[in-house]
Amino acid sequence: MTSAWNWIGIIAWIIVLVLFVWVFHNIRVRRIKMIVERKHTFEWPSLFITIGELIVSLGLVAGMFFVTFNHRVSLAKNDVSVSYDYEPLVMQVGSNGSTYVAVDRGSANKPVHIYNYWVKGAKYTVSSNKATVVTNLNQVKVADAGIPWQQHALLKQDKQHEKAYVAKMTATYKPSFWNGLGVHVGHQAMTRWLIRVPAQSFINTTDLQAE
Question: Is the pTM of this model over 0.85?
Fold first, then answer.
């Protein structure tokens, strides 16, 4: 169900699009009157009005496109709420030893690594541009600078799950005028994974080494 705040953006889009259509209709009507009633094919005042109308209408459309489709998330600002989920990793035992994470190569079109991990018997896959694998919590501040991981919570998970777990951070747009204008309220702004393993030896990089 759409948040009531998002109606700000929906109504704004309707108004902007109606105005955009009306501008072209008004330009056409004004030109017809100029030709039929005043027998002119060109008038400077009409040209200036047309330019002004186009600038305003195109500016409003561009502004709505920016707010709706080009909105950049800032975790430092108060426009998103952040939640965290933690799950223990399940060790996989195979010919390459015991591992928590298996790293695959990305495709030629997407030159990123693919992280595979297991929790409660289920396998999950996430790309390296959305996740970070660390063997020490001191690496988090460098590897994931700008992501507000809660160090005290990570330390607690270290003790509970023997340094083998996945943390998921979800940022959701809060109810506010600007988020409503962009029709973002209640939608996910960002999702980030932090995969914690006890040591590098628990990461299977066989696929990478075969390059």
Answer: no
